[in-house]
Write a structure and sequence with these properties.
The protein is an alpha/beta fold. It has two domains: 105 residues, Rossmann fold (3-Layer(aba) Sandwich); 171 residues, Rossmann fold (3-Layer(aba) Sandwich), CATH 3.40.50. It is 45% helix and 15% strand. It contains 14 helices and twelve strands. α8 links the parallel β8 and β9. The longest helix is centred in the first third of the chain and has 21 residues. It is globular and about 55 Å long.
Length: 349
C-alpha cells in the first residue's frame, strides 16, 4: 500500500508515522479532514500483522470519523491513531507518554480519545504530555456506555422499520465481540428482554456475559451465520464481504464496529438480500458525541450527552427514509447525508 496514493484516493490531509527509540513506540496518526474543525478520533492499540494492515486500518477509520462527526452534528473533523503492538506486552506509561508528545506536535489539529485497548487511565497519561485529549475520567469519562446506548437506540429504529415495533423483547440478537461496548450493549439488551447469542476470543468476557445475561456462547467463526433477528458486529471491522453476505440469517445488521463493510459491493449485497444495514458511523456515534461535547460551546454534561445520544434513533430513521425515497442502500444514503454537510461547510463564505 502506497501512503500518498491512498491519501489521494481517500482524501486525507496528512498521515504521520512516528517511532520512539526509547520506548519502542510505533504509531500512525491519520488526519482525514479539518473542514468542520479540529479532528477527533480515538487511539487504537492493536497487534497488527503488518505495518500495511495498520495503515489500511487507520486510513479507513479516520475517514469514517470525518463522516461520523459530520453526521452526528459535531463541529469537529475526523482523524484516528493506531499504536502498533500487543498492548498486554508493550503498553507502559513511558510509551503512552511518548504517544502524547506525538499528539502534541500536531498543535491541536488532532484530539485523541479512547478506542480499542486504550482506557481512561491511558488518556490521563497521554494528557500529561498534551492538552489535546478528550474522554478523560474527570470530564466526559468512558465513552463505551454512550456508544452502547446509541447502538441500542439505533436497533430500536431498525426494529420499528423491519418488525413494526421498537420492542426488542424476545428478539434473538447475535453479538460478535463483547468487549467494553459489546458488554454494555449486552446488558441493555438483556434488560430489554432480548435473547442473546455471543462470541469473542476472550473466554473470560464470554463467561461473564453468559452468567450476567443468560447468553448463549457461539463460536467466533459461527456467529455470522446463526439464525437471529439482529446481528450486532462489535469487534474488528471489515468483516462483511460479497461472499459472506449470503451467509447471514438475520433481517438487521446493527453494531458498534467501525468499517463493517469491506467495500460498497458488500453493502449492495446485503441490500439485495433485504437485510437492513445500519451504517456504522451513524449508529455508533454515541461515544464521540459524549467526548466531542468537551469541545462544543457549553461543554460536557451527562444530561446533554445522553439526550444527544438518544437522538441516534432519529438519525438512523432519517437514513432509512433517505434510502427508501431514493431507492439506494442505506450506506449510500448515509454517505450522501454526511457529504452534504461537509460540502456545505467547505463552501467559501
Amino acid at each position: 500500500m502506497k501512503t500518498l496514493d491512498s491519501m489521494t484516493t481517500m482524501g486525507h490531509e496528512s498521515v504521520t508515522h512516528y517511532y520512539d527509540q526509547a520506548t519502542g513506540l510505533k504509531a500512525i496518526i491519520a488526519l482525514h479532514s479539518t473542514v468542520l474543525g479540529s479532528a477527533i478520533g480515538g487511539c487504537r492499540f492493536y497487534d497488527y500483522k503488518s505495518e500495511e494492515d495498520a495503515l489500511y486500518d487507520v486510513l479507513r477509520l479516520s475517514r469514517g470519523m470525518t463522516f461520523k462527526n459530520a453526521a452526528c452534528g459535531l463541529h469537529a473533523g475526523g482523524a484516528k491513531a493506531v499504536i502498533i503492538g500487543d498492548p498486554k506486552r508493550i503498553k507502559t506509561r513511558e510509551l503512552l507518554a511518548a504517544f502524547g508528545r506525538m499528539v502534541n506536535r500536531l498543535g491541536g489539529l488532532y484530539y485523541t480519545a479512547e478506542d480499542m485497548n486504550t482506557v481512561e487511565a491511558d488518556m490521563e497519561v497521554i494528557y500529561s504530555q498534551t492538552p489535546y485529549v478528550v474522554g478523560r475520567k474527570s470530564v466526559s469519562g468512558n465513552p463505551s456506555p454512550y456508544t452502547a446506548l446509541g447502538i441500542f437506540r439505533g436497533m430500536e429504529a431498525c426494529a420499528k422499520e423491519v418488525y413494526g415495533s421498537t420492542d426488542l423483547a424476545g428478539k434473538v440478537i447475535a453479538i460478535s465481540g463483547v468487549g467494553s461496548v459489546g458488554a454494555c450493549l449486552a446488558g441493555m439488551l438483556h434488560q430489554a428482554g432480548a435473547k442473546l447469542l455471543i462470541s469473542d476470543v476472550n473466554e473470560e468476557a464470554l463467561k461473564r456475559i453468559e452468567k450476567e445475561c443468560g447468553a448463549t456462547i457461539v463460536g467466533v467463526n459461527d456467529i455470522y451465520a446463526v439464525p437471529c433477528d439482529i446481528f450486532a458486529p462489535c469487534a474488528m471491522g471489515a468483516i462483511i464481504n460479497v461472499d459472506n453476505a449470503k451467509d447471514f440469517k438475520c433481517r438487521i445488521i446493527a453494531g458498534c464496529a467501525n468499517n463493517v463493510l469491506v467495500n460498497n459491493e458488500a453493502g449492495d449485497a446485503l441490500d439485495q438480500r433485504g437485510i437492513l444495514y445500519a451504517p456504522d458511523y451513524i449508529i455508533n456515534a454515541g461515544g464521540v458525541i459524549n467526548c466531542g461535547l468537551e469541545k462544543e460551546e457549553g461543554g460536557h454534561s451527562k444530561e446533554k450527552a445522553t439526550e444527544l445520544v438518544k437522538k441516534i434513533y432519529d438519525k438512523v430513521e432519517m437514513v432509512i427514509a433517505i434510502a427508501k425515497a431514493k431507492r439506494i442502500p442505506t450506506y449510500k444514503a448515509a454517505d450522501e447525508y454526511a457529504l452534504g454537510i461537509l460540502a456545505a461547510a467547505a463552501k467559501p463564505t
